[in-house]
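Lab notebook: predicted structure, single chain.

Context: the supervisor wants predicted structures on file for every construct in the current expression panel, including those that have not yet been purified. This is the next one on the list. No modifications to the sequence; it matches the entry in the shared construct table.
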Amino acid sequence: MWGTPGTRDPRPGATSVIARNRLLRRRAPTWIFRAARSRPASDSNMWSRNDTRLRGSLSPADPPRCFAGRSRPRPTLSSSRDEPLMSCGVTFTVVDPESVATAVPQVAGIGSALRSAYRVAEVSTTSVAAAADDEVSGAIAAVFSAHARQFQALGTRAAVFHDRFVAALHGVRGAYGAAEAANTSTLGTLENAIAGVPWFSPVKDLTGRPLFGNGANGADSAAGPGQAGGSGGWLFGNGGNGGTGGPGAAGGAGGNGGLLIGNGGNGGNGGPAVANVNGGNPGSGGVGGHPGLLGHAGSDGQTGAPLSSGGGTGGGGTGGVTVISDQYGTTTIQNAYVVQNNAYNIGSGQQTITVSSTGFTITTETGSAPTDGAPLAYPSVYLGGAYGTISPNSPLPDQLSQIQTATSSISYTYPSSGTYDASYDIWLNPTPNTSTVNQQEIMIWFNHVGPIQPVGSDVGTATVDGKQFAVWEGSNGQNQVVSYVADTPINSWNDMSVLGFIDHTETVEPSVNNSWYLTSIQAGFEPWNGSVGAAVDSFSAGINGTA
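Prediction complete. Output recorded below exactly as produced.
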């Protein structure tokens, strides 16, 4: 109690002198500002309610005393009733590291624009010419020039501050990203632990499906249909992906997602066509799994590669080739790489590629795309995963921190006509995503013909692995793109350092770091028109010495 009956002020509602003095002498406890604080409804107007016991002792300017969420007896002068003080509740801030990552280059771009403006204004403002050859004109010109120099000095300081801000923002993104990764790992461990608790076992034993958890992926088949993916838990869980079918056999169906929350699994790819199996027809892709109430359906698997148009012949005959005319048709070569037609913007046109054991050639190209927009296609060969198709025995995706060497070799044949570029596509992502578009694309233009240019704007030059490039940076609306355009055409390159380009990209795109994943290394052509005869004669890629 802060007062005694003998010292109470006789006026109604007044505070005793002793109580007031004790309150004034009382040392304010340490308290922490919160970004946001909730307040009990009963205390929403705590300083103006009809409570005369402490009136005159506390004011709206006095900070509330916080006891880390615990209740403490509230001293009173007129009763022994305990009331909880306002508690300082813990608040939470939701941060999306990917949004911060997107903001970093945008904020950096503001700094670049300001520097450009300073440079443009510097020459014409810091050395103002006098209007006439007299003292007054000279003095006026000197005043304006002095102001301009002061402005340039302030601009330099602002640029330094801006650079520090961008660096801090990048650091914040990395810190939140690391925290998110750590939490994801912890939650994944917890999820796996829960899935193994015997309490859930009876449901799975009785129905073949647990209450919670993701379905298993179906196994690939060497001589028959791919195995179907397992369904997710009855309530929550994603369906497993279907397995790839054997020669001429269908891919497995994707598993269904949970009834409440869950994505359907992707259908497995059909097996390639083989003579005397399934009538020489390729296997059909497996059907994607159904989603839950909240989720999306799995995509259907791709039809297997068609039968080769010719086999090897005796003596000096040529080896077999595969002709791909399907818009998104694929096949594999050397049991290591995927070749894709990838005619994503062909419209009513037609693109056909002929695949050999070492590469491919564009044999049909109809249609035309505006040179200030996207090309018709990107026929290419790759190591890794793209749009759900992963190369055989692939070492990708792999985290950049785990990669010591990443190299690739290629030999191109350029067509005699057409508008095109010959380029690598290197894909990076914060997660090992091989089914949808990644966040960062690195293009390496070996050659280009016609009035075309990379995405974005020219941001400088670079020497990578001994060769000179102009560097472009921008966004195509789906992902960030850094492009390296060779000063002179490159016909072939052995053991090109993929990591060299990734390391330089990290200086252009601060969001990219060693926690990201390398998902695929691709090489091919981007034709806008013509380009028949363009060929990748040979291609190889390896990660840590393994293709």
